Amino acid sequence: MSHALTVPQTGGTEVLTLAPQERPEPGPGEVVVEVAASGVNFIDVYQREGRYPMTTPFTLGMEGAGRVVAVGEGVTEPAVSDTVAWAMVNGSAATYAVVPAARTAPVPDGVDPVVAAAAMLQGMTAHFLVNSTFACGPDTVALVHAAAGGVGQLLVQMLKAKGTMVIATAGGPEKCATAASRGADVVIDYNAVDDLAAEVRAAAGRGVDVVYDGVGASTFDASLASLRPRGLLVIFGGASGAVPPFDVQRLNSGGSLFVTRPTLHHYTADRDELLWRASEVFAAVKCGTLDIAIGRRYPLAEAATAYDALEGRATQGKLVLLP
């Protein structure tokens, strides 16, 4: 039986509904994929809650991987039976997903489709953050919040591959150990310190060049206070809630600081850029230099449990749904 994870109205995880699904037909420029796995992400939460407005009902999920079973008019690649992955495409948490062909990336032989699904949104996010939002290198000192989470673990690994000094934060000894295992030079348990920014500055010997903050409201003040003059705060998520409005004069008094709120869509809008990011992520996965830690795999019917775990920040690594 085919199913789709639907949101009939905005709300908490209690609104999630498993609805029967017939195999769809592709339109021009589209492919239909039999989904091997779809990823669990905070962007799904924002859509379900109505923070990112969507017309209800809709099928949840923004990334996945699987086998192409039908192609629409004008599609020359991928072909039927190819294994592909995608991100930033609505309706991915289902047995079958309709995906624009131009948004797919080929999954190379030797990469598990479930791992490919887990790698797309967070892997390409980490890729653009360390390569394009701020070009990190051996002279960079970076602060990564929630470094035991899905994006956090990938950021630490990619930064260390560039020779960057990484100061990581995480909550509790177990998560701190995970961040350290990914190569972080310094790990700070933000539950065990009174002044997080002071701890960061002591570890760095100065302010950091860039902060990668997917936590949001609860870390924002410490993130700004951890930066060197002309440093960059990259807010790419809000696991603890959205950052409230603030006086931009704080950027001046902090040392002519910069703040940006990037999104993957704007860093993969061009197909060549999408393929570049995806191919580098998959190449690193295949050769073993990038480990995609799948924290847990849930049947689609247990999606509410998966999102409860994600929102409760009780997870490490990537969560995936298996249709």
Fold and architecture overview:
By secondary structure, the protein is α/β, with parallel strands linked by helices. It has 10 helices and 16 strands. Strands 3, 5, 6, 7, 8, 15 and 16 form a 7-stranded mixed sheet that branches. β9, α3 and β10 form a beta-alpha-beta unit. α2 crosses α3. The termini are close together.
Short summary of the structure?
The chain has 323 residues and is an alpha/beta fold. The protein has ten helices and 16 strands.
Give the SSE map.
Blueprint: E1 3-7, E2 17-20, E3 30-39, H1 42-49, E4 58-59, E5 63-71, E6 83-87, E7 96-100, E8 104-106, H2 113-133, E9 141-144, H3 150-161, E10 165-170, H4 173-181, E11 186-189, H5 196-204, E12 208-213, H6 220-226, E13 227-235, H7 249-253, E14 258-260, H8 264-267, H9 271-287, E15 294-299, H10 303-311, E16 318-322
Parallel strand pairs: 9-10, 9-12, 10-11, 12-13, 13-14, 15-16
Antiparallel strand pairs: 1-2, 1-4, 3-5, 3-7, 3-16, 5-6, 6-8
Keywords:
Quinone Oxidoreductase, Chain A, domain 1, Rossmann fold, seven-stranded mixed β-sheet, globular, 10 helices, six-stranded parallel β-sheet, 2 domains, alpha/beta, single chain, 31% helix, 323 residues, 27% strand
Q: How many separate structural domains?
A: 2
CATH architecture of the largest domain: Alpha-Beta Complex
- Overall strand count: 16
Distance between the termini: 10 Å
